[in-house]
Amino acid sequence: MIAMSSNIFDLMKKANKITLDNHGDLVTLERAVFLSWWCDKGDCAFCYMSTQKNKIKDPSKAKRKIPNIYAEAEMCKRLNWNIEFLSGGYESFTTLEIKKIATNIKNIMGDGVWLNTGITDELEEFGSEIKGITGAVEIANPKLHKKICPSKELDQISNMLEKAGDLGFKKAITIILGLGETLEDIDYLIDYIKTYKIDRVIFYSLNPHKETIYANSSQPASLYYAEVVSRIRIEFPKIEIICGTWIDNLANIGILILSGANGITKFPLFKMFGTKYGKRVEEEVKFAGRKLKGTFTDKNQLGNPQSEIDPSLDKFIKRYIKESLKNKY
Ligand code: SF4
């Protein structure tokens, strides 16, 4: 393993300038909208869903109610949060169901949505409701990939991304740091982004879930995360970079923004809204010299308990507003 570069501050400084020059000073709050809590594969070593597979007797019950999904999108619109992507485990919804949900969400948000709903050979079914396709590459090391995600073959993900490009969709990948990769793997990641002409990279840091082999692993160091992101930003000035941090790692946010993040994600947004943690996110963004698109604290933006789209969403909108005002912390 290569030791942490002593010039990390130089890298971050360079990455920050490149980001400001190419993307401006707006930072987005990104929310992954889940379609279900079931995954038929259920064997990725780090994944919470892998701990649930045997506990879910009836997968159809793990699907979320569709009006609840739309209500969540309506709340994202009100608070000016972006939808990171629609996400769901394998074998939860059919392609046509996903297309219908995406179409309605596009109508709510006024913009096409990204998908992260697994490897599929039915991309032709999608149209302008979809902005881009996400390949859940997850691991920045192809040898580790086989062990960690045995049922999600890298070749199949790569083929899907190629096809997505041929069909005119944008392309994204997800990468989790802290799974055993090292800084030496950044070159592989750079090659992958070049080869498949990736438009958007979403980084997460490992969240060591109980009952997984990572339960006692540490999350990656903040400056390790910063070095990976800075080097990718310097190599690819134009791509969009989203960085995930968990609620226990909010101090990473400022550092990751200075390293090149355009957006931040992976928070329990409604739970954190208006709390000291929501305020902390806004402070992190401010002290990185950026403006936050959307709000984590402005209660007026939560709006009325009635949906502006469909009365069948009302009860879910009410629930989101209640959760946002609860101050659980
Ligand atoms: S395919 Fe996705 S949801 Fe399923 S176990 Fe792997 S990471 Fe989790």
Automatic annotation (TrEMBL):
Which Gene3D superfamilies would you find in this protein's record?
Aldolase class I
- According to its UniProt record, the EC number is 2.8.1.6
Say yes or no: keyword Aminoacyl-tRNA synthetase present: no
- PROSITE patterns xref list: RADICAL_SAM
Question: The Radical SAM core domain covers which part of the protein?
Answer: 19-248
- Read off the InterPro entries from this record: Aldolase_TIM, Biotin_synth/BioAB, Elp3/MiaA/NifB-like_rSAM, rSAM, rSAM_sf
Q: What is the protein name stated in its UniProt record?
A: Biotin synthase
Source organism (scientific name): Methanobrevibacter woesei
Source taxonomy? Archaea, Methanobacteriati, Methanobacteriota, Methanomada group, Methanobacteria
**What gene name is listed for this protein?**
bioB_1
